[in-house]
Amino acid sequence: MFLFLFCGIMLLDDGKVYDYMKKLNELYDVSSDVEIKRICINSKQIEPGDIFVCTMGVKADRHDFIDEAIEKGASAIVVSRDVGEKSVPIIKVDDTNKELPKLCAKFYDYPDKKLKMIGITGTDGKTTTTTVIQALIGKDNCGYIGTNGYSYKDVKGDTENTTPDSHNLYRYFNEFVENDCEYCAMEASSEAYFRKRLEEIEYDISGITNITREHLNIHGSFENYVECKCEVFRHTKKDGYCVLNHDDELFETCREACNGKVVTYGKGEDNTLQIVSYKVYPTHTDITYKYDGKEYDIKSPLLAEFNVYNLACSLLVCLSLGFKFEELVKNFKDIYVDGRLEMLDTNTPYYVMIDYAHTPNGISNLLKFVHTLDIKRSIVVIGSAGERDYLKRPIMGETVLNNASYAIFCYEDPRSEDPRDIIDQLVSTAKETHDNYEIVVDRHEAIQRAIDIAEEGDIVLVLGKGNETYQKLKNETIYFNDIEEAYKAVENRKEREKVGV
Q1: Beta-bridge partners for 287
Q2: Distance separating alpha carbons of residues 88 and 255, to the nearest angstrom
Q3: What element of type H or E holds 11?
Q4: pLDDT at 465
């Protein structure tokens, strides 16, 4: 098989220059010694010296853009079908999607082999769990890749996907290695396995939070979705560990897929890490865990029962890596997860919370938790992403309306779909039985509306995006951050109230 490359010269924050240029004959068994500066899968982003890999996208066959790539300066092309003679070397492989991670790994001299790789999957809780793992190990020694971007030490950047395409993924691995990180905690999404982005990675530790219905637009069936979720366990080293949620309904299915040693967390006494008891307060959670015959009473900054489980998964991952419980507890002060159960400091008689919840299970768990707090009403702002699992939308709508006091439905990354059509699907099965909602299509206006109707003791919850900084519309991606929008809406209300409007 053949490989591909990416970054040319990279200047990192420490001022050191890393040169990753390689010659084509160092990557493939060809005579051409043309220099390759980057690997690229988007013809519009091609720069002179890039190698263009014609992967199959969700909607595009990138073989159709070879001429454009050559015109922009591509030095070589990787293809999986005959494209005729071109003015640059053509490398033919069986499957360009499978080839991409192989090429990236080779170009960066297999950086994932130089790290302790931690892969976390699950329908809900991946971001929280991987972020907590990084905090427990320490940002100076552990890189993070996931929904909230990538980070290590004081470096933080955005990513387009929960699990990025391989040319970016391996670049991040290499940055971690070059900056003396020993560990990488990453979210391993089912879609990434479906797109063959993670085929070459073997994990030292893998873990799962839970499995509920999601992404059936991609996988076609729940069975296929579960199968892709379980890939992370099949790609775990035989001498590694698979960390499983014993209380999840699909525990046995996950265990059957495990290649490494199975360790478990849950409420039963037979778990490796037992959740003995917990009590949730508005500002923290008191938890008692039991590990290796000893009970540990801890004060967690994470709220809600589902975070008792997420923290258990994070702790068991680190314990399986050889860390001591007492050492890990010292780092609890560093735990902070952007956009997850994030209560904003608004100095108002009502509360405002931002959360990433976007699945029926995640929404249900969140709203049930919120109503254990001392609040009056819950006012939810929510939408559903376009070009994603449309079958879950009616379930989402019912879940919101059954568990929230009031809901405002709006757009959320509609992409090519009509936002109103998405909202109509959200309320399709509930509109005959519920009247505790309204529709405000524009998300900016919806957030303002929720803030404006909030009364003393109410809580406004803006769900679905967390701390993400974009909205994907039909023809463009715009900057949009729910946290910033909520703060602006609060200030707008305060200003109006000052002048009596």
Answers
A1: 278, 298
A2: 48
A3: strand 9-11
A4: 95
Residue whose structure tokens are 């729940």: 222
Element (H, E) at 494: helix 482-498
111-334, what's its fold? UDP-N-acetylmuramoyl-L-alanine:D-glutamate ligase (3.40.1190)
Domain boundaries of the chain, sorted by first residue: 9-103, 111-334, 342-498
Is 342-498 in the same CATH topology as 9-103?
Answer: no
One-letter identity of residue 99 = E
For 11-59, what is each residue's pLDDT tens digit? 333 333 335 789 999 999 999 999 999 999 999 999 999 999 999 887 7
List of residues 6+ apart from 250 with CB closer than 8 A? 211, 226
User: Percentage of residues in the chain with pLDDT exceeding 70?
Assistant: 94
* Structure tokens that stand for 361 in this block: 């299970």
Q: How many Cβ atoms from other residues are within 10 Å of residue 14's Cβ? A: 9
Would you say 425 and 394 are in contact if contact means Cβ atoms under 8 Å apart? yes
Instruction: Dump the DSSP string for 77-119.
Output: EEESS-----SS-EEE-S-HHHHHHHHHHHHTT-GGGGSEEEE
CATH 3.40.50.300 holds for 9-103: no
Residue 121: C-alpha distances to residues 126, 158, 196, 224, 233 (Å): 6, 20, 15, 15, 10
Task: Tell me which residue has tokens 């525990």.
Answer: 251
Report d(CA 281, CA 284) in Å as an integer.
Answer: 5
Query: CA-to-CA distance for 68 and 74, rounded, in angstroms?
Result: 9
Name the amino acid, one letter, at 250. Answer: L
Bridge partners, residue 14, by sequence: none
Residue 367's contacts (CB-CB under 8 Å, 6 or more residues apart) are: 378, 380, 399, 400, 403, 404, 461
CA–CA distance, 42 with 35 (Å, rounded to integer): 19
Torsion of CA 174, 179, 182, 183, to 10 degrees: -60
Report yes or no: 139 and 151 within 8 Å, Cβ to Cβ: yes
Check whether domain 342-498 has CATH 3.90.190.20, yes or no: yes
pLDDT of residue 213: 62
> How does residue 216 score in pLDDT terms, banded at 50, 70 and 90?
low
Contact (Cβ atoms closer than 8 angstroms) between residue 207 and residue 316: yes
Residue 18 is predicted with a pLDDT of: 37
Residues belonging to the chain: 501
Retrieve residue 77's tokens.
């092309």
Rounded Cα distance between 407 and 397, Å, is 9
Give pLDDT, residue 16: 35
pLDDT, mean of residues 440-453: 98
Considering only CA atoms, which of 369, 367, 492, 485 is closest in space to residue 436?
Answer: 367
